[in-house]
Amino acid sequence: MEPSQRNTETPSFQYSTVPVDSSGRATVFRPFSLSSPHSRAFHLAWLSLFSCFFSTFSIPPLIPVISSDLNLSASAVSAAGIASFAGSIFSRLAMGPLCDLIGPRTSSAILSFLTAPAILSTALVSSPTSFILVRFFVGFSLANFVANQYWMSSMFSGNVIGLANGVSAGWANVGAGLSQLLMPILYTTIAEFLPRDVSWRVSFVFPAVFQVITAVLVLLYGQDTPDGNRKASNRNKDRTPLEEEHSGFVRILLDGLGDYRAWILALLYGYSYGVELTTDNMIAGYFYERFGVNLEAAGTIAASFGMSNFASRPAGGMVSDLLGKRFGMRGRLWGLWIVHSVAGLLCLLLGRVNSLWGSIAVMWVFSIFVQAASGLIFGVVPFVSTRSLGVVAGMTGSGGTVGAVVTQLLLFSGNNVRKQRSISLMGLMTFVASLSVTLIYFPRWGGIFCGPSSPSSESDDSSQRLLGDGEEDDDKVVTSGRLRPVC
Predict the structure, then answer these.
(1) 7 φ, ψ to 5°?
(2) Are strands 446-447 and 441-442 parallel, antiparallel or unpaired?
(3) How far apart (Å, rounded) are the C-alpha atoms in residues 329 and 321?
(4) DSSP 300-329
(5) How many other C-beta atoms are found inside a 10 Å radius of the C-beta of residue 109?
(6) Of 26, 286, 429, 472, whose Cβ has the fewest other Cβ atoms within 10 Å?
(7) What is the DSSP letter of 141?
């Protein structure tokens, strides 16, 4: 595909401090640097999403205390958990198109500002109904994940996008685990100075303030693309006739919704990240009730599950990139299938182990695989459609919360839930869902069991404008006047 000459002005990314491709996206990933807009966007994206995860999962570790104070039944607690996921379904669906329209930076900040009062209002709940409503609105903040992944896909090239997406989301997901650890400690500390029924309410001031601070930082120091913020970047440049034809919002939306691969990835994410969300929501209570550990110990065990995201999800993205370089798209899909299947089997085993330390050990290994599977999924998402990237990312992200809602409703709702059996059934569902990977096919690159149907650049137009892999030369992605597609 011949690169078009759209603007004679020298773009700002020509002066980038890191190797970039023809679109200004970084072809190397340097997570411990702040010298380029790519690295700053990375740190702002993961920190903003981290604060949203911390807020959303700051409530579960204090549920034993809250339930006692508000006289919440088991069914009310379960309904609140479902509500927190249901809220993020709608917000994630909306976040993808919003990123396409106004950019990930502004979208992320707006969402954080709007949902911070929701987590603060936890201090005011006085009934089961108000508790459920608060969790519903707090769950909206998880849509920041879509902005996070969209932002990384706008800043990093195809050869490192799996790793960039994985590290950004993985580090952010640590917020869910850290909240399980810190909120009981924060509550216990405040309870030394204030009454017990006041202490848990005051505890929620911290996550609300933290979320506002990160939103301010995103607005002050972030930019949407390597060439600047959305209003000053590619949207205002001259468009080719083909881009003009496909630039409408409705067309972008329909292209994303009409791609069956996006629906399969949403299903897979529902039984990787959705399973992770469900586990985050119930694992502290599981160890508290089944093995009789105290509240702090249960929170610490649950925290170890979420905090493994620091390494496991990035590892999934890195594996996806390595397999892509060696075996193409088929390598990415094979890696996803294997890791996703193993995660399902480990979850099944977790519900069958009867000892405390055995359960902890299996939970740790399970956390590595289920979180790595999420990283592998978002190693494929950017290749489905560049034109409808926001829509596809939103659909996939929403699939995660839909999966969590369905799993919670089917397996963890009611007053007489046998959590051991429910955990094993969740693993079986995860394993069965992994089989859908075999249905994903890219005409240009193939699928798990077959190669490409056409090497022509005319096939699979929605995903053909992928970025170079930089495998041979990090800062030279355009060779012989043609962009090199990457798997």
Answers:
(1) -145, 130
(2) antiparallel
(3) 10
(4) HHHHHHHHTHHHHHHHHHHHHHHHHHHHTH
(5) 23
(6) 472
(7) G
Nearest-angstrom CA–CA distance, 211 and 137: 14
Phi, psi of 132 (to 5 degrees): -65, -40
Q: Which amino acid is at 73?
A: S
pLDDT of residue 455: 56
- Cβ 72 vs Cβ 128: under 8 Å: yes
**What does pLDDT average to over the chain?**
81
pLDDT for 417: 75
Residue type, 348: L
pLDDT over 90, % of the chain: 33
pLDDT surpasses 60 at 415: yes
CB 333 within 8 A of CB 84: no
**Secondary structure (3-state) at 469:** coil
Cα(39)–Cα(343) distance, rounded to whole angstroms? Answer: 31
d(CA 342, CA 348): 10
* Sign of the dihedral defined by the CA atoms of residues 346, 76, 140, 178, in that order: negative
Assigned token pair, 67: 């339930």
| DSSP class of 484 | P
**By three-state DSSP, how is residue 448 classified?**
coil
**Among 452, 433, 430, 456, which residue's Cα sits nearest to residue 443?**
452
| Spatial distance between the Cα atoms of 189 and 196, rounded to a whole number of angstroms | 11
Nearest in space to 82 (alpha carbons), one of 394, 421, 414: 414
Say if CB 380 and CB 440 are below 8 A apart.
yes
Q: C-alpha distances in angstroms, 374 versus 10, 163, 268, 291, 348?
A: 38, 12, 8, 29, 18
Tokens matching residue 454 = 């056409």
Contact 402, 266 (CB under 8 A): yes
- Provide the token pair at 116: 């911070």
Contacts 24+ apart (CB under 8 A), 326-332: 327/487, 328/445, 328/446, 328/487, 329/380, 329/383, 329/442, 329/445, 329/446, 329/447, 329/487, 330/445, 330/446, 330/447, 330/448, 330/451, 330/487, 331/487, 332/162, 332/376, 332/379, 332/380, 332/487
Residue 218, C-beta contacts closer than 8 angstroms, at least 6 positions apart: 44, 45, 48, 105, 108, 109, 112
What distance in Å separates the CA atoms of residue 177 and residue 69, rounded to the nearest whole number? 24
Cα separations (Å) of 386 from 98, 144, 153, 157, 392? 15, 20, 9, 12, 9
What is the C-alpha separation between 484 and 482, in angstroms, rounded? Answer: 6
Residue 471, pLDDT > 80, answer: no
**Number of residues that make up the chain:** 487
Phi, psi (degrees; rounded to nearest 5) at 378: -80, 5
